Amino acid sequence: MASSSSGSSIPAPEAVQVLVSSLADESPLVRKAAMASLKDIAVLNPLLVLDCCSAVSRGGRRRVGNIAGLFQVMAMGVGALDKEDVDPSFMAKLAKIATAEIVSSKEVNTDWQRAAASLLVSIGSHLPDLMMEEIFLYLSGPSSALPAMVQILADFASADAVQFLPRLKGVLSRILPLLGNVRDVHRPIFANAFKCWCQAAWLYDDDFPSNTFLDGDVMSYLNSGFELLLRVWATSRDLKVRASSVEALGQMVGLITRTQLKAALPRLIPTMLELCKKDQDVALLATISLHNLLDAALLSETGPPMLDFEDLTVILSTLLPVVCVYNDRKGHSNFSLGLKTYNEVHRCFMIVGMVYPDDLFTFLLNVSIRKCRLKEESLTFGAICVLKHLLPRSSEAWYNKRPLLVEAAKSLLQEQSMCVRQALSEVCSDSSFF
After folding, report:
1. 378, 320 in Cβ contact below 8 A?
2. Residue 23 forms part of a structural domain
3. 265 Cβ contact list (under 8 Å, min separation 6)
4. Residue 44 is assigned to a structural domain of this protein
5. Which residues form the MROH2B-like N-terminal HEAT-repeats domain (predicted)?
6. Is 172 helix (H, G, I), strand (E, B) or coil?
7. What one-character DSSP code corresponds to residue 319?
8. CB–CB of 347/359 below 8 Å?
9. d(CA 152, CA 173)
10. Under a CB-based contact definition with an 8 Å cutoff, are residues 319 and 350 in contact?
11. Are 4 and 46 in contact, with CB atoms under 8 Å apart?
């Protein structure tokens, strides 16, 4: 292939070939330096780098010492191509090189597989149909490479929602028939793919609100996938499967029909609440999913709230101890993760407060006083923290309730818990409300 023109000085093909060979050097420093140089050259002349890399890659990973590095450089080169330099036949050859490596192994999510996936995603950014047709060849039936191919489609949706969404129907029509035979060990990969596809749908809808992609077929596929995830995968004994399924369901709740969502609430809410009590990673994704669920169930523009406040008290009572757990930065190795969970819980209360402001205020006040008397510190502390968070955001709705809050604060002044006393003092210091 001809090289791209550039005003900068470009190394000769022989020099680039030496750098490509150096990707397999025994020295990590040499490999790192060769990688950096090739990426720099790829920006200036991607075709030259791709020609040299594709020639070397024909030997496969058994002959190429650093196939992961080679695929990374190729992905960079493809991404740097100008539109006029994209040759479909050459891109098809590169796509087959990548998929041939992936299907030749039963491994999942290795470094070289991720690098091969990044090459395919880069090809998809220029020629999405070409890349996806190559992937679709391996979705026609059982295959050890199926999880890796599904992960590539997830990566592509995350990288380029605009190009992926018009092709969502083709993806779902091929994936849905395969879900019943997916083994537990691979279910998190498929659930993550549904999450990424739905996230791409939200991004696409934000950018192109007038271009509807949810036709009858897509809705039918999404509804079927939702039911399988909810009724089978989210009840798995494997925590990873349950967690990844709930994470995907949390992205799907705003896309499925209102009727289906309402029917799913009695099963979905307890599943999410159970995961909110798990460790940091799981609790975060569960609270994010719960936040999305409350948004879809309470703030829908197509109908009234699906949950009465009485239905929400179980959710709120479960979340209050979570506030207490993640308030202490010293108690967790990953404070950033805990803070995200803490904030997501507050967002859940915010949504409830937007729909039921008076009921929520009364609930939090009653919990603060009643649980304090019962020495249930976590619930008392959680309720006060939520009040502190919501006061400046709900000052108009709660303005006439200041005397009630003052009386409640007085009744809590004798509390011996330092955490409760500190939270109470922070509430009282909010001059914008008092």
Report:
1. yes
2. yes
3. 293, 297, 306, 307
4. yes
5. 45-253
6. helix
7. H
8. no
9. 17
10. no
11. yes
